[in-house]
Amino acid sequence: MSQRVTNVVVVGRDAALWIAAAAIQRSLGRLGVTVRAVELPSLLQPLDVYSAMPAIQGLHKQIGLSEDLVVAAARAVPLVAQRYSNWAGAVPPWMVGYDDPPPPGSDVGFVHYWVRGHQEGLKPAFEDFSLAASAAKHARVPVYKEGTELSAAFGYNLSAGPYAQLLKANAKRLGVELEPATIGRIEIAGDRLAAITLSSGDRVEADLFIDASGVEGALIGRLPGSGSESWNEWLPCDRMVVASGAPINPPPVYSQISAFRAGWIGLYPLQDRTAVVAAYSSKHISEAEVIESLPLLARIPIGGEAIASTLRRGVRNRSWIGNCVAVGEAAIGLDPLESLGLYATHSCISHFMALFPVEADSFPEADRYNREIALVGQNLRDIQCAHYSLNRRFDEPFWDECRDRTPPESLERKLEIFALTGHVPLYDQEPFEEQQWAALLSAAGIFPKRYDPRIDMAPDDALIQKVQQRLRDIAVAVPNMPSAAEFMKQSREKMEMAR
Amino acid sequence: MNNPLEIVILGGGTAGWMAAAGLASLTSPKFCRIRLIESDEIGTVGVGEATLPHLKNFNDTIGLDEAEMMRNTRATFKLGIQFVDWGFQGSRYIHPFGTYGRATSGSGFHQRWLRARAAGCDWDIGDFSYAIIAARRNRFDFPETAKPTISSTYSYAYHLDASIYARELRRLAEARGVNRTEGKVREVVQDSETGVIRALILESGEQVDGDFFIDCSGFRSLLLGSKLEVPWQDWSKWLPCDRAFAVPSESANEFTPYTRSTAVEAGWRWRIPLQTRTGNGYVFSTAFANEQQAADSLLKGLDTPALDEPRLLRFKAGRHVRNWEKNCIALGLASGFLEPLESTSIYLIQIAIMHLVPLLPLAGMHPRLADEFNRKINVEYDRIRDFLILHYHLTARDDSEIWRYCAHMDVPDSLKEKMELFGHSGQIEQYKDGLFTLPSWLAVYLGQGLIPTGYSPLADTGPPQRLLDDLKELRTEISDRVDEMPSHNRFVERYCQMLQPWKLEPAETQL
Fold this sequence. Notes:
Number of helices of chain A: 14
Low-confidence stretches of chain B: 501-511
CATH architecture of the domain at 5-75 and 160-234 and 317-382 in chain B: 3-Layer(bba) Sandwich
CATH class of the domain at 5-75 and 160-234 and 317-382 in chain B: Alpha Beta
Number of helices of chain B: 15
CATH class of the largest domain in chain A: Alpha Beta
Number of strands of chain A: 22
Strand order of the largest sheet of chain A: 6-5-15-16-17-14-18
Number of domains of chain A: 3
Helix content of chain B: 25-40%
Radius of gyration of chain B: 24 Å
Number of strands of chain B: 21
Helix content of chain A: 25-40%
CATH superfamily of the domain at 5-75 and 160-234 and 317-382 in chain B: FAD/NAD(P)-binding domain
Strand content of chain B: 15-25%
Low-confidence stretches of chain A: none
Distance between the termini of chain B: 48 Å
Oligomer: heterodimer
Distance between the termini of chain A: 47 Å
Radius of gyration of chain A: 23 Å
CATH topology of the largest domain in chain A: FAD/NAD(P)-binding domain
Largest sheet of chain B: 7 strands, mixed
Mean pLDDT of chain A: 95
CATH superfamily of the largest domain in chain A: FAD/NAD(P)-binding domain
Largest sheet of chain A: 7 strands, mixed
C-alpha cells in the first residue's frame, strides 16, 4: 500500500474553516494526521448572523462543542420554526416548524389525515398539527423528547462573529495549527495543487487541501474543471444587505421572513440584538432603496450601517478535484432563505469524512463526493426555490417572474406529486423529510387533490380520534416546554455549574 | 374522489393475486373496485419459490397469518443464500439477511474487520454475522425485536410453493370483494384517439370495462408490451442467461434455512428446500450450452431423486422502458425479468404494488403519476441489475466460456465505480431507494474475492489488541448464542408443519 494521508491543510475563513479543521482534527488527529488551518482575512461583518436548522446540534457533537457554550458565546436564540409573511397576498402568515420525522415504518403521513379532515370540514390549518409550529407561536423550546410520540427539534440563530471565534478557539483546543495569511502563489501540477505560498513566504505542501474559503473558491477555482452550474434562474435574489436592529424582548424562537416587492427580509432574533438580512433582485430594486426601506420592512429600529454583498447561487461541477476538496460555499452557493448555509457546510464535511481517502496519491473517492455534493446542493436549492415558485404576490414583476419560471425538474416533480397525491418524492441526500416538505408545500398553498387511500381502512371514528388526539397532545406538551428566556437561563446555569 | 376506480387485473399468477390481495387490503371499495381475469387453461410460471424478508411485511400488511401461510405453502425459513463456486471453484459464502457485527456496530463494522485483517488476522467475516452462523448450523429462531441485541441483527424470508401462495392470496382477495372472472382475452379495446385501454373482450364475448389495467399476463405482456408497445430494454449482454430448467426432487432429510446457488459450466443451479420437496433449477445461456446438456446437468446434480421431468422456461433479462403507460401498469414477468439469482421476482411485484398504492389515479389520470411510478420502478430494477451483474462479473473462474465472457465483459459505469471504490478502500454506497444495502454488497464482494487494498482511516481508533479482543469476544458470543437456537427442522415442525392426515393429533403449542 502506498502512503497514507498524513498532512491536511485547510484554507479558508470563518465558520467553514473552523468547522472543517476541527472535524478532521478531532477524528483523525490522534491517528497521526496533522491539520493546519490557513486563515484568510474574515469576510464577516459585525452584524452578520448564522442561522442554522436543527442538524447543527449534530455538528456541535461532532466537533466536541457543548450546546450551552454555544448559546452563551454566540448570543444564540433557539430556532424552532420559520414564519413567512406577505408571501401570498392577503393570506395570513404561516409557520413551518422543525418537527421530528415520525419513526421509520410508521403509519401514512399525518398530512393525509389532515387532507381528509379538510374534505369533511375540518378547520385548523396543517401548522396547527405541528408541535414545533405551536411551540414557536408560544415562544417555547422543545427540549424534552422522552415518552412522547410527537417531538420536535431546534437549531439556533447565532451571532456570526462570536460564533466564529468560538469555533476557532475550539479548533485550537483540539490541536489544529493556525496561521493567519493570504495566498500568494499557487503551484499546480496537472489537476493537483503542488503547493501554495503564503503571504509570510511560507511554501505549503499537503497531501490534501481543503478549500473552505467561501464563494471565491480560492483554491478549487484555480483547478481545471472547477466551473459552476448556475442557479440564478431559480434563486432570483442576487444581492443581500445585512443590518442590525434592536433586540426583541422576549426573543421569538422563530425567524420572521417577510416578502416585499423585489425580495424578502428576514429578522433573526439574537440575545442582544436582532439581525436583519434582506435578499433582493438588483434588477428590480436598487441597493439604496432597499437600505432606505429597511426600518419600514423590518418594523424595528435599525441601528448602524447596512452592508451589501453579492450572492453566488450554484454548485461546482466538481467540488473535489485532484487533491483539493471544496466545502461549504466554495462548493455550494445558496440564498440565505430557510437557514441552510451551515447545513451545507456540515453536509460537505460529513460526506468528505465518510470518504476520507485511504491513500495520498490517488483519490477515487472524488467522483462519489462530487455526485453526492451535487445532490445535496440540488435538494437545498429546491427547498429555497419552492418558496419563490409558489409565491402568490400577483402583479409585481419580480414575483410574477418567479411564478412563471419552470422550476427545476426535481422540484417540479415534488410539487406535482404532492398536489396530486399528498406524497412528496424524496431523493438521496435530502435534508428535509417528507413531513417537512408537506408542511412547507401545504403552507405555501398547495392543497393535495386527494389523500392516501390506506387511511380509510380504519373506521371513521378512529380517524377523527387520531386528529383530535394530536391537537390535545400538542396542547398538553407545549406549556410544559421552557420559554426561550428559561432555556437561556438554564443554559447559563449549566455553564456556571460546569465551571 | 368520486366514483370508485374500476381496476382490471389481467392474469392470476403470483403477480395478479398479489396485486388483487394488496389492493383489496389497502384500499376501500369506495376507491377501488377490483376485478381479476384469469384462465385455468393458462399455466403460471410459479418458479419463484425463494423470497426475500420483505414478503413478511407484505403478508402482515394484508393480514395473512404467517404460520398458516407457511403450513399451506409447505414453507421453510430462509436466512440467506449460499453461493457455491461463484468467485472461484471451491469457494462458498452466504449472503445473509442480516448485518455483520453487533446491533450497535453500525455501517463501520467491515472497516474494523479490514483493519484486523491488515494486522494479520485471517478471520472469515462470516463468523461475525449472526444470520450466517445460524444458517451454517441449520438453526432457526425468530429474531429479537424488542431490543437491540446480537439476535436482532437479522431478518428472514421463506422458501414456499408460489402457486399455493397465489391460491392463498386468491382466497383472501375474494373474501375482500375481488371479483374473479374465468376467461381468456380475445380483444383489447383502446380509445381510438388516445390509445387508452377501455375494455377487454373475453372469448366468451363478455366485455370487461375498466379505468385502470394491471397487466399480469406473464412473459407475453399482453397489454403493456403487445398492445401499448412499450419498448423493451435488453440487458442480456450483461446477464446472458436466457433459459431455465426447473425440476422438483424428493425432500432432503434436513432442510437448510438458506437457498443454495451453485455456479456451473453454463450458468448456475438453484436448490430450494420446501417441507415436502426440494425445488431445483438450472439457469443457463443458450450461447454457452444447448438445452439437452443443461437438462442432463441439472438431473445429474440433484441430491435427491427427481419427482418429475425438467420443465423449460425461456426468458430474456431486461425490463420495459416504462412500466406504467397510459392507464396500464405491468407487474411481474409482464414488466421485466431478472433471473432468480437473488430471489427478487416476488419482491419486485411487492414493491410495485407498494409504489402504486400512493400513486393510484383516484382523482383523475395525470402523466406525472406514471412518470413517478416509472422513476421508482426503474431505480429498483437498475440497482438489482447491477447487483446481479456483480455476481457474474466478479469471478476468477476460467474453466468455461460463460465465466470467461462475464469476467471480461464491460459492465455499466454505475457498477464499475462501485467496484473500484470498494476495492480501494471498502467503501460501499448507501442509497435511499433500492433493495440491496451494505451487508449484501459486502457479502458478494468479499465472498467472490474482491478484498479491499485499504480501509478507512477512521477505523484506526483504539489499540489494535483491543480490536482483536473485541472481535474474538463477538465471535464467541455469536457462536454460543446460535447454539441455543433450535434446529431449523425442529422449528418448522413445531411452528408450521404442513398438516398430514396421519399426523392430526394436536400440535405442540410451546416453542
